[in-house]
User: Fold this.
Amino acid sequence: RAEIAPGAVHVPGWLDSPRQHQLVQACRDWARTGEMERVRLPGGGLLSVRTLCLGLRWRPYRYTGEPVQPLPDWLAELGRTAVADTLGGSIDPDVALVNFYDDAAKMGMHQDRDERSAAPVVSLSLGDACVFRFGNSQTRARPWRDVRLESGDLFVFGGPSRRAFHGVCRILPGTGPQGLLKGRLNITLRESGQGL
Ligand code: MD5
Ligand code: FE
Assistant:
């Protein structure tokens, strides 16, 4: 367990192997409805990751009212346990965003600021490792720290780190557990603050 910055906690290997397999299988089931798609930015660009929303539909830069598959209680509960195990305090997640990265996908430096809640975000990594760049809250430029996120890792972002810039520089193909998944999945659990 490592505190990367105040409010940002990395717990390598938080998910055991059966749990990782269960989560990947759940992602496959959710994706069968065909909702895993590249999101278009208002400026016209397309994200290279494929995204699936549970609970509420997210599009840059808001949660829309369109219906999506429900967020299962067991997944919300996993998010509550993650926060209790790291920062303490509570969250009541109503959204999960599932991002799939193929070998070439990446995510530029950005802030997550579409949530109207101050609650932490819980991030779970599955499959191939990545180079995750954790920056600062002021600018998308340095200083930052590059952290390798591996399959099974938990990252919780709260408090002063909640609005930090962050991104995924690259995927490290072939580094995931044998037989789990080709590519990388990231599940984030969030409290949207809609209806608060
Ligand atoms: C990923 N996902 O690996 C990353 C990890 C996203 C996204 O960035 O927006 O879907 S989650 C990183 C994250 C979330 C919320 C706050 C902070 C980082 N942070 O304050 O650094 O697909
Ligand atoms: Fe983000």
About this structure: The two ends are 32 Å apart (CA to CA). The chain has a mean pLDDT of 97. The helical segments are 17-31, 73-85. Residues 97, 99, 107, 112, 121, 123, 134, 157, 161-162, 164, 166, 168, 186, 188 surround MD5 (ligand 1) (CB under 6 Å).
